[in-house]
Specification:
By secondary structure, this protein is mostly helical. The chain is 59% helix and 0% strand.
Length: 261
């Protein structure tokens, strides 16, 4: 998110395009083309918008509408530059020949793959994890049944590891391999001008969205404040009632105290 200005949906879409553990991806699409696809086909913030964006890309990849192509070429010749085109139209114009080179899986975007990325099955147990000594007899039976290893072969490979575990030597913790932004390690410098342009556009789009959100929240707060004031800037009748409901009980208490004194 920090390096490429991508949200979760865009990361999932990029994995669907490039390929990963759950899918082989779209053949011919690399990181640069993948990022340009994200710019042209917005992936939104929920699963429905993510699927819609990938489906729109798939329809473009599989379809060819001659009338749409003619309209695009006329528009290009009239403006003589891409400024008058939408991001998706610029993508269509730039990647016209990609339809013959990019090959997507038949079920792309597969719903089960989308669910695997967006709703991964994880162990939700809160029990404390602890290491135990392997059951060597069960390991021998498993290796013999699945791989045909003899007991001697299994002993040769497994017993040294068991002996090391029992001696108190532990494997390096998994989190020691993780890197964080606090380590100040940059994974790679971006040299592609196309990739830099896409990242810049996505970052700018994010900035605009955050500014719109702030403005909307400010206007909502202003409207709430204005509802308690009249045109002269004084509290209206409703706000006066609200104020007096808090003041009156206090005044009554003071009167009762004076009478008792």
């Amino acid at each position: 998110e920090k390096e490429l200005s991508l949200n979760t949906n865009q990361m999932v879409a990029l994995a669907m395009l490039l390929g990963g553990d759950y899918t082989e991806g779209v053949k011919g699409v690399g990181i640069v083309n993948g990022m340009e696809i994200l710019r042209a086909f917005p992936m939104g913030n929920d699963l429905t918008e993510l699927k819609d964006g990938l489906v729109r890309f798939r329809k473009w990849l599989d379809g060819f509408d001659p009338s749409e192509e003619v309209c695009l070429q006329k528009k290009m010749s009239s403006v003589r530059k891409e400024n008058g085109l939408s991001k998706e139209q610029r993508f269509h114009n730039k990647h016209r020949s990609a339809r013959s080179r990019w090959i997507a899986p038949k079920d792309f975007p597969a719903p089960n793959v989308l669910n695997a990325y967006t709703k991964p099955v994880v162990d939700k147990s809160n029990a404390r994890f602890s290491w135990g000594t392997p059951d060597v007899d069960s390991v021998r039976a498993f290796c013999y049944g699945k791989m045909g290893w003899s007991h001697e072969e299994t002993n040769r490979l497994v017993l040294p590891a068991v002996a090391k575990m029992e001696s108190g030597v532990r494997q390096t913790r998994l989190d020691s391999f993780f890197m964080t932004y606090t380590d100040n390690i940059k994974f790679a410098s971006i040299r592609s001008s196309r990739l830099k342009e896409v990242i810049h556009d996505i970052h700018e789009e994010k900035e605009k969205e955050s500014q719109i959100t702030v403005v909307n929240e400010t206007e909502t707060n202003d409207d709430e404040n204005d509802s308690f004031m009249n045109k002269k800037g004084l509290p209206n009748k409703r706000s006066k009632r609200a104020v007096t409901t808090f003041i009156r009980p206090t005044a009554k208490k003071r009167k009762t105290r004076k009478k008792s004194n």
